[in-house]
Amino acid sequence: MTTSEAKINEVGRRVQENARLIWNAANSLFGAFKPHEYGLVILPMCIIKRFHDCLMPTHQAVLDANKEYESFGELKVGFLKEASGYQFYNTSNYTFPKLITDPNSIEENFRDYIAGFSDNVQQILARMNFHAQIDRMAEAGVLYQVIVDFSAKDLDMSPNRISTVDMGYIFEKLVQWFSESYNEEAGAHFTSRDIIYLMCDLLLTDNENVNDEDGIHCTVYDMTMGTSQMLTCMEERLKQLDTNASVQTFGQEINPFTMGIAVADTMIHGCDPDNMQFGDTLSDDKFAGYEFDFVISNPPFGIDWKREATVVEAEYKKGEAGRFAPGLPSKSDGQMLFLLNGVKKLKDTGRMAIIQNGSSLFTGDADSGQSNIRRYLIEEHDWLDAIVQLPNDSFYNTGIATYVWIINKDKPEHRKGKVQLIDASKCFLARRKPIGSKRHDIAEASRSLIVQAYGEFQTKTYEGVESDGKSIVCKSKIVDGISLGYSKVVVESPVRNEDGSLALKRGKKVADPSKRDTENIPLTEKIEDYIAREVLPYNPDVWVDETKTKVGYEIPFTRTFYEYTKIEESDVIAARIAEREQSLMAKLHELFGEA
Length: 595
Hints:
Layout (H helix, E strand, L loop, with lengths): L2 H24 L11 H18 L3 H10 L7 H9 L11 H4 L6 H10 L3 H9 L2 H11 L2 H8 L13 H17 L12 H12 L6 E2 L2 E8 L6 H13 L4 E8 L2 H13 L7 E3 L13 E6 L11 H9 L17 H10 L1 E12 L1 H4 L6 H12 L3 E6 L12 E7 L9 E9 L2 E7 L2 E4 L2 H13 L3 E6 L5 E10 L4 E8 L11 E2 L2 E2 L7 E6 L4 H8 L8 E2 L5 E4 L3 H4 L9 H23 L3
Parallel strand pairs: 2-3, 2-5, 3-4, 5-6, 7-9
Antiparallel strand pairs: 1-2, 6-8, 7-8, 9-13, 10-11, 12-13, 14-17, 14-18, 14-19, 15-16
Helix pairs in contact: 1-2, 1-9, 1-10, 2-10, 2-13, 3-4, 7-13, 10-13, 11-12, 11-18
């Protein structure tokens, strides 16, 4: 078992164990909160306990510093951070062990403890509206028991016991359980580690742009970061390549709970919490003007962008100065807006891995917003490097086909003008026990095969064996980018007089709207040649209205990998049917023969 495979399994075990302990605390909320509301308490409490356990070793030092520098005003903050060893602190005399010694004053004391946190922690809790939940818990008489539950000896959430990655997955496991209790879309909150590892490895394949004589120096951005798992894994993979790698991570998130986890662990690890911003990426871009070496993201798909329409449409009108210059997708699905946002955020040497569903491949007619976005990436800039189809049932909340798009603004010479399509739908390890809709993992052997196919850049079928002994197949095809484009032409047929002759107006044929037709003609072929071969032999009087010709782009992924299976000969089928009939008749005679 490889290091990464072992890490995935190890994380899975720890996540289950710790999440179960925290879930037990939710039982104390029964009656006071509805099951789907448990997360309003448990998730902020996770963050509070995480901060608490980080600060316990330096708690007394912070109290001493707070007293010593009391007269320093705002300058005191720097000394308190230095005393705590973190970017945050708590000046309250209370700790969880001390809180549970006085059940009669639990509300007053707990509020004192919360108020002792530094402003950056207060901001996280305010976004979660946690003070309102304290009111509810106190009124229902469950506040003391919840704090007792989180004080359990086995629930040590300090970073030396629970890593950043573990904490993110514990949180996400809890979100899954809370969502299931209310039939919500849990998978909207997170992406499994096996998929993130694949995306990271694809981004890092044959990428020397982030290296210099001092090693790896790079920036990574996730526009829908959730708990920042993609950023954390990307940093982890980079540091496996270079233990001294300098990696700065940036992210934006609209959910206050997932945002809280991300900022909390950013502060715990001494990074700049300002790199993690709260808000709607489409309508409130917190990183305008920034450019990054890597973008990695799993934005929501199938989500409309009506509420962001005013800002998005204003951005579109800015042209290349905005984020959405090539076009706008239909308002029912905003995933391609995130794609364009990521493209705008890339350096000239940058790469992006972003997950999309199948609609981004083909929806939208010629000259539509979606088609123009594809044209922008393929024809106008040659930035679309590869698309990898993932196995179905790879995500917690959906079993549909999903794809990783690789955008490369600095393609090497041998990849220019080309797009690599990789069918990795048969590259997976079946899970012994599904998690929601997730029945397949992209385990080590599968991931290696996919990355090999991407790196070798050949039209080729790759075969391997997964750890369960089952065969895996990965197919790669290299296509010319221009071959994905087409001209949509309008073919007019003439009006005819009653005697069958052509109706003319000013000496020209008159078009019959009822017989108007269209043809999609590959850009690799001249329009006149196609019409001469495919249309004129059957209707010699038609013509193309060149003023109505539009260019479109689509990516026919399924058709590209379609393999014709020859149908059995009819006599073979007939013989098999006859054999089955004879067998059936023999059994009937055996059963009813004497009668």
